[in-house]
Amino acid sequence: MDFDYDVIIIGSGVGGALCAWKLSRESKSSRILLLEAGENLLDKKTRAEFVTNYELATIRNVPSPYARLESNTFAPSSDGTGDPIAMNRYYVETGPDLFKSGYQRMVGGSTWAWRGNTPRFVPNDFKLKSTYQVGDDWPLDYDALEPYYSEAEKELGVAGNHDEWNGLLGGKRSKPFPMPAIVASYGDTLMRQAIGDLTIDGTKVEVVATPQARNSERYHGRSACQGNSTCIPICPSGAKYDAGVHIKKALDSPHKNVELRTGSVVTRLKADPSGEVHTVFFRDWTTADRSERGVTGKIVVLAANAVETPKLWLLSALKNKSDQVGRNLMDHLAEEVTGLFPEPLFPFRGPQSTISVERFRDGDFRKVCGAFRMTIGNDGWGRTEPPAKTLDDKMWDAKNGRVINFGKELQQEIADRVTRMARIGYSTEQLPSRDNRVTLSDEKDGFDVIRPKVAFKVDDYSKRALAYGHSVARRIWEHLERTVGATEVEPKQPTFKYNGAGHLMGTMRMGTDAGNSVVDSHGRSHEHPTLFLVGSSVFVTGSTANPTLTLAALTLRTADAIAKELA
Amino acid sequence: MSAAAQFRALSGVLTGEAELDATVSEGYRARIGRAYADDLAALLTAFEGIANHPDVAGELKAMLDQRPAFAKVAKELITVWYTSQFTKPDGSTDGPENVDQYRSALLWTVIKAHPPAVSSGPYGYWAHHPDQIASGH
Question: Which of the listed residues A448, B23, B35, B37 has the most CB atoms within 10 Å of its CB?
Answer without folding.
Answer: B35
